[in-house]
C-alpha cells in the first residue's frame, strides 16, 4: 500500500480542482507542465501502457509499481481518475496549440488544409451574434441574430424582416435557428426557433413558422411550445437546430441547465423532437403511448445539441452536442434512443471537478466521435458542393471556443477521420454549403461576420 495515500481518506486528496490534485500528487515525477521527469512525459503521445482512456486510467489506478509509478486507487476515486485522464488530454492539446496554429495559418492569404487551397472572404458584419443561416432559392440568405432580428442578406445589404416573434433575450437564448421548408418554393414556409417566456422569469425553446412578404413576417403559426410549468429560469442550453427528413421536422432543445431532466421523458429539454411540418405529432413517434411523456420526443439524454444534419448519401441523422469540459459529441440519432447525459459523459465540470467515471452504460448510446478537450461544437453541414472536391460528402463541424472548423469523414456509420481545416478566424457558429459550392460561415467575435471559403485553383 502506498504510504502517501494510506493516511488520507477516500476523496480527500482528489477533492476540488483536478489541476491542483495533479500538482500535489503527480508533478514531482511527471513535471509541472506534464513534460516528464523521473516519470515519463504525459503530453508526448507515447504511451507505454496503452493510449486509450481506459488504459491510462488503469495505470493511474493500479500503478506500475516495479517501474516506480505508484497506485492511486486509495487516494483517488474512479471519477477523480476519470477527471485526471481528461486533464492529461487537455494539457496535451494545449501543448500542441502553437504547432496546429502555425500549420493552419494562411500563407499570403491562402489557406491550405485537407487537400484544398482556399481564401476566406468576409461578406458582411453585424453587431449582435449571428446564429444561423439559410439560403433562399434566389441565393440570398436569411440570418438570425440572437437579439431577435431576422436579417435578409441580399445584394450585399442586410435588411431586417419586421414582425418576427418576440424572443426572450436571456443568457444563451434569443432568436436561434432559421430553416426553409423543403418545398419552400411552393409553400413559402420559413421556420424559426427561439427562447420564449410567459412571465419574463423562465422560458423554453419554441418553434414558429411564417412567411416573408415584402420584408415582413406574416402568417405566423406557433408549432411547438411548452406549458409554463415546464419552463426554467436558466440562461443556458436552449439547443437548437432543425432538419427536415421524410416530411418531418426534427429539432433539438438543450437540457436548459437542468441536467437530470435530460433523462426525464415528461420534460421537453435535453431532447430531440420530431413533428409534422405544421406541428402535429406523428403517430409513430416512440413515446406517444408512454404516460406523461412529451409526445414529440424522438431521442433523449442530450446536453446541448447545436448541430443537426442529414447525410445526403445515407439519409441518416447526425447531431453534434456540447459536452461539459471535455466530451463534446457527434451522435447518430435513432428513434427512441437514450444518449446518456448526464449518466455517462466523456467530460467533467467546467470547474475541473469530476461529474462521473462512467463513459458507458447499458441502454445508452455511445457518441460516434468526441472531443477532449471540447471544441464547443456548433452547426454542422454535410458538404454537398462541387467546389471543394476533396471534401465532398464529408461533415463540416464548427467550433466556438476552439475557433475551428473541422472536417469529418464518416464511413459505415463511423467517424474515420477528423481534420481541422480552419483555425482562429473567429468563433464558428454555423456552417452551410452555398448553392455556388463555397462554404459559408457565421463567425462570432467582437462583431459577427458572414464569411465564405472560396477555393483557389
Ligand atoms: C514517484 C513518481 C511518480 C509519481 C508521484 C506519479 N508517477 Fe506516474 N509514472 C511514474 C513512472 C516511473 C511511470 C512509469 C513509466 C515511465 O514513465 O517511464 C509512470 C507512468 C505513468 C503513466 C503511464 C504513462 C505511459 O507511458 O503509459 C501515467 C498515465 C501516469 N504515470 C500518471 C500519473 C498520475 C496521474 C500521477 C498522479 C496521480 C502520477 N502518475 C504520479 C512515476 C510517478
Could you walk me through the main structural features you see in this protein, from its secondary elements to its overall organization?
The chain is mostly beta strands. It has two domains: 3-95, Cytochrome Bc1 Complex, Chain D, domain 2 (Orthogonal Bundle), CATH 1.10.760; 111-455, TolB, C-terminal domain (Neuraminidase, 6 Propeller). Helix content is 12%, strand content 35%. The longest helix is centred in the N-terminal third of the chain and has 27 residues, at 78-104. The protein is globular and about 75 Å long. The structure holds heme C. Heme C (HEC) binds at residues 25-26, 28-30, 38-40, 42, 47-49, 56, 59-60, 64, 67-70, 72, 84. Heme C binds at residues 25-26, 28-30, 38-40, 42, 47-49, 56, 59-60, 64, 67-70, 72, 84.
DSSP strand content: 35-45%
Distance between the termini: 65 Å
CATH topology annotation of the largest domain: Neuraminidase
Would you identify the CATH architecture of the largest domain? 6 Propeller
Small-molecule binders here are: heme C
Derived structural class: mainly beta
**Strand count:** 25
The gross shape turns out to be globular
Count of alpha and pi helical runs: 6
| Strands side by side in the biggest sheet | 1-2-25-24-23
Mean pLDDT: 95
Report the sheet with the most strands, covering strand number, pairing sense and barrel closure. 5 strands, antiparallel
User: What does the oligomeric state look like here?
Assistant: single chain
Proportion in helices: 10-25%
Low-pLDDT segments, ≥5 res: 1-11
- CATH classification class of the largest domain: Mainly Beta
